[in-house]
Amino acid sequence: MTSDQYRDDGCVAAPELSGVAVIAAADGEIDEPTRAHLQVCPYCATRVRQMRQMQTRLRRQFYRLFCPTTDLLVDYCQGLLDPYQRTVITHHLATCSCCASEVALMESIEPVSDMVAPRAGVFFALRHTR
Asked: Which of 37-41, 57-61, 81-85, 121-125 has the lowest mean pLDDT?
């Protein structure tokens, strides 16, 4: 029997979990009564699984919706932010693994100016090849 077959059957261990309880369980914030309910009720367990799947799709789609821009993260890495902005970004990085990964990547590479700064001779040679 697949989880979709339980969809129309409804909750088998009344009372059915509320929407808030389903969201909390999907977020991993589950209390013992909810855990026990999900172990015996395939319908509610399916609702929690579907909520997790939807949250995963939404995170993939909108993961940067409330995040600082990449330009702001670059400024953070270069130490160009004022103390307030730096504090806000530092707090955000503690709660957002996507931005924290982006900052870690930026901090792991050499500064762009050292890697791509043209030499005067190369620029001069390219300029006069037309």
From this structure: 121-125
- What are 19's two structure tokens? 């929407």
Q: Of 41, 40, 114, 106, which is closest to residue 77 (Cα–Cα)?
A: 106
Its pTM surpasses 0.85 = no
Cα-based distances in Å from 99 to 59, 74, 86? 13, 11, 14
Domain boundaries, the chain: 3-62, 70-127
How do residues 96-120 score in pLDDT, each as one tens digit?
A: 888 999 999 999 987 655 555 555 5
Name residues whose C-beta falls within 8 Å of residue 17's C-beta, 6 or more positions apart in sequence. Answer: 11, 25, 34, 37, 38, 41, 44, 47, 48
